[in-house]
Specification:
The chain is mostly helical. It has a single domain, classed as Growth Hormone, Chain: A, CATH 1.20.1250.20. The chain contains 14 helices and no strands.
């Protein structure tokens, strides 16, 4: 199931730029990301109601049947063939290698990947939500659910209200600032000892993460040529899926050695420091200008693209 979901997620991400113009791309990504986050809030709640009413078996059946809606929507779409060279599709292993190698052509995108990985590894203490709720905030199981929902709720509200980003040019700078705010809110959440202030801070962190995610996704989709978009989207999916798992290990290990509160605060501060390091190591991220790249101007071609075009002309 996880493998099928990973393939679907990559294809769905790579398809978006082919359906809208560059000017509408931030809005389209905001909408798709916001709806995804909305399901993270509504889905568990609906699942809980179904479990309470019908037991465990029925909700799984409802979930499986609901997947037919996705299949139907996909069947209604027009064909979306990728752009390929005269040599056709590359073999799988060579395709993976060329996709990773192509990241050298996209320093701003690579910086976004590194920043997201750092934020999720050090600044996502979701593995600690149960112990924080039970032993720090003294809010019980309900408090645990509130903490999980708070992050997704903040992300949903922010993603569905980011229409202003359609006119934003400096998406790299916005992403840097957003991740810095994420880190600050996470660190502050580790300093409070009651559930509602913590939930508000986690919701604000989720909102900041949503703004950063939309900026990074937009830059990735605009800067990546169509024939490489699936491979770069695969790397993006790997970062998104792997970062939180690394964060579970990091936050749990630090909490076991010290305390849960120290784990949350230290993770937020490390994430904040990493923003500065990434800004220095990848100046292309802060220099990204959507007016020059994403709004009608041609994307800079790599030497490989130019060579491919020349060979096709010959």
């Amino acid at each position: 199931m996880a493998g099928a979901s990973a393939v679907e997620r990559v294809v769905r991400s790579a398809i978006v730029p082919a359906t809208v113009s560059n000017e509408r791309l931030p809005a389209a990504i905001s909408l798709t990301y916001g709806l995804y986050q909305l399901t993270q809030v509504a889905g568990p709640g609906l699942g809980g109601v179904l479990i309470a009413v019908f037991g465990l078996t029925t909700p799984y059946s409802v979930d499986a049947v609901s997947c037919l809606g996705m299949a139907g929507a996909a069947a209604m779409m027009s064909a979306q063939p990728p752009a390929v060279g005269k040599g056709g599709h590359e073999p799988v292993l060579r395709s993976i290698k060329s996709g990773l190698a192509y990241l050298k052509e996209l320093p701003a995108v690579t910086a976004g990947f590194v920043m997201d990985l750092s934020a999720m590894t050090f600044g996502m203490p979701r593995a600690l939500f149960p112990v924080l709720s039970l032993t720090v905030y003294h809010a019980g199981a309900a408090g645990t659910g509130l903490l999980y929902a708070a992050v997704a709720a903040g992300s949903t509200v922010a993603a569905l209200t980011t229409g202003w980003m359609s006119h934003a040019r400096r998406l790299g700078r916005i992403a840097l600032v957003a991740v810095a705010f994420w880190a600050v809110f996470i660190a502050l959440a580790g300093l409070v000892d009651t559930i509602w202030p913590a939930a508000v801070l986690f919701a604000l962190a989720g909102a900041a993460d949503s703004v950063s995610a939309v900026c990074r996704s937009t830059m990735m989709q605009v800067l990546t040529p169509d024939r490489m978009r699936g491979r770069i989207s695969s790397v993006f999916s790997l970062v998104v899926a792997g970062g939180p798992r690394l964060g579970d290990i990091e936050s749990g290990t630090v909490a076991a050695i010290t305390t849960p509160e120290f784990s949350v605060v230290s993770g937020g501060l490390i994430c904040l420091a990493s923003v500065g390091v990434i800004a220095i190591a990848f100046p292309q991220l802060a220099a990204y200008d959507g007016a020059k790249v994403g709004q009608g101007a041609p994307v800079r071609k790599s030497l490989e693209d130019e060579a491919l075009e020349a060979s096709e002309l010959i």
